[in-house]
Amino acid sequence: MHDIEYNTNRFNTIVTGLVDKYVPSKSVKTSVLPIWWGNECENARARKEILRDRAKKTNLPSDWAKYRAALSYFSNLRDSKCRVYLDLEDRDSISKKFWRQVKMNSSSTRIPPIVNDGLVFKSDLE
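and the corresponding structure tokens:
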């Protein structure tokens, strides 16, 4: 007879093979879009990308002009949506919303030093 370790490895190999063969895998997509980003921003972004691809393909001045117009529209829309989101009537919550937005757009985890009257105070961890 075979020992328990051999049988366990054989069982795991068979089960893993069956799972790989018959169980569908699914990718989970997480959203990293800001809270204020909506369908209007997404449609403008997609339109801008389509026009950019067309302009790169044809290299016609008219296509580049359409792309620049779409880029300008998208940038202005994005900036205005963000400004409206941050410019709330409730001034107590703006700080929280502002820093949430800053944190989402920043990859830095460093805490900056405190500066008071020209003196720089660093944390004990540095």
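(Above: one complete record from the training split.) The radius of gyration is 27 Å.
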